[in-house]
Design goal:
The protein is mostly helical and 413 residues long. The protein is built from 19 helices and no strands.
Length: 413
């Protein structure tokens, strides 16, 4: 009884401590930075520059009055958090107030993910790992990706419950916050096309309905903004296409080491080719073991996307972490990934400090080593997921919290 109570309430208490640590880790530098302290101490947060440079302090409406290089749902969240910060701080509101609100909202989303894990029957040890997650300390106050993470987890777990329409809708809404939840949609669509005792006309109809639902929910958030301010709405897509890359991405590492120096257009092309080919291979090779649960391959597809993308910002590891906990058969590769995340985070930030004369001495070679260590963990996880069946608990739904009506079958995963 004591153990059950500890596993029920303990993760929430640990998550509270983790969220406080995550806020302090970014907030200890205050509303402005001196020299390279944001890189030396790791306290860099997008909230600080966004406060003044994206019109948050002035209450400007994203896309209509201010630039915004995030998708619309995240832009709306940034505006709402800015409003709350100005109400709390009054005339003296500054970037520190905004950072506090950003961290608080992300903490609420982190608790929502924990609650979803609990309701889904995720084993207690994995919920403890989420509650004490080092990525939450690093990224809780970093930016706004937790919104898409929470929506992606909700979509994934809906797919697990066999609620394909809900999963498609949630993944589409998540895509309106950040691009990566869209990777779940093809898996849901392919699942609908599998026989499953249905005639081919019915399978095609189901896949078509899922497609329409996804488009409708994505358009519901995007169409009004695109119609009102197309240039600013499309900046996310333009910015993504035109940016060259980041220091820890494989394409930048190859260029820095002189292995393959490429321009932005080349990276756009070959990152897409590498991702599409690898994702297709993951699905084809994993088909035999996961044909009844193609959604379980989402973790591998997402990991491959991160490895092949020309941009690998530090907080992208937060996208993957909850899905590693939910789908990985073993936890030691997850620990390996976390160590790689920590190494890549500090290598990248200390590298940024070095050109500023901070004397950290970190080079692109150090970033390459840290990124390779992390990539090895991700590749191991991908291969293991493709070759092995999903964890038994993932394919078994937890007991219903209320009795099923007579004559209605209990859905299976």
């Amino acid at each position: 009884m004591h153990s059950r109570r500890l596993n029920s309430f303990g993760p929430y208490l640990l998550l509270l401590a983790t969220c406080v640590a995550g806020w302090w880790f970014k907030a200890h530098c205050g509303a402005s930075w001196i020299g390279d302290e944001q890189y030396i101490t790791g306290c860099y947060s997008d909230a600080v520059p966004f406060w003044g440079l994206r019109g948050v302090a002035a209450g400007q409406i994203p896309y209509v009055e201010a630039r915004m290089e995030y998708p619309v749902l995240t832009g709306a969240l940034i505006w709402l958090e800015g409003l709350i910060a100005r109400v709390i701080g009054g005339a003296r509101a500054d970037a520190a107030d905004f950072l506090l609100v950003v961290a608080l909202v992300n903490a609420v989303l982190a608790f929502a993910v924990l609650r979803m894990m609990e309701r889904a029957g995720v084993p207690a040890v994995r919920r403890w790992w989420w509650a004490g997650a080092p990525p939450l300390v690093l990224y809780l106050g970093h930016n706004w990706d937790m919104l898409a993470v929470a929506l992606a987890v909700a979509a994934f777990l809906a797919a697990r419950r066999g609620e394909a329409l809900s999963a498609a809708a949630l993944a589409a809404i998540g895509t309106a916050a950040k691009l990566f939840p869209v990777l779940l949609l093809p898996l849901i669509g392919l699942q609908a096309l599998l026989p499953g005792g249905k005639a081919w006309r019915e399978r095609i109809r189901s896949a078509a309905i899922l497609t329409v639902v996804a488009i409708m929910f994505w358009a519901m958030f995007n169409a009004p903004v695109a119609w009102r301010a197309f240039d600013h709405w499309s900046e996310f897509y333009t910015f993504s296409r035109e940016r060259g890359g980041t220091a820890a991405a494989v394409w930048e590492i190859m260029g820095a080491q002189g292995w393959w120096v490429s321009d932005t257009e080349t990276r756009n092309l070959w990152s897409f080719v590498a991702f599409a080919g690898g994702a297709a291979a993951i699905v084809l090779l994993g088909w035999r073991r996961h044909s009844d649960a193609l959604w379980a391959l989402f973790t591998s597809v997402l990991a491959w996307f991160l490895l092949t993308n020309k941009v690998y910002s530090p907080q992208f590891d937060l996208w993957l972490y909850p899905f590693l906990l939910i789908t990985s058969r073993k936890l030691w590769p997850v620990a390996w990934f976390v160590l790689g995340d920590l190494a890549a985070y500090w290598a990248e930030f200390w590298f940024f400090a070095s050109p500023g004369g901070a004397g950290m001495g970190v080079t692109q070679g150090h970033i390459a080593v840290a990124a390779a260590f992390r990539a090895a963990a991700m590749l191991w996880i991908i291969v293991d997921a493709v070759r092995s069946p999903a964890p038994a608990w993932l394919l078994i739904l937890p007991p219903a919290t209320s009795p099923q009506p007579e004559g209605r079958p209990t859905p299976i995963g």
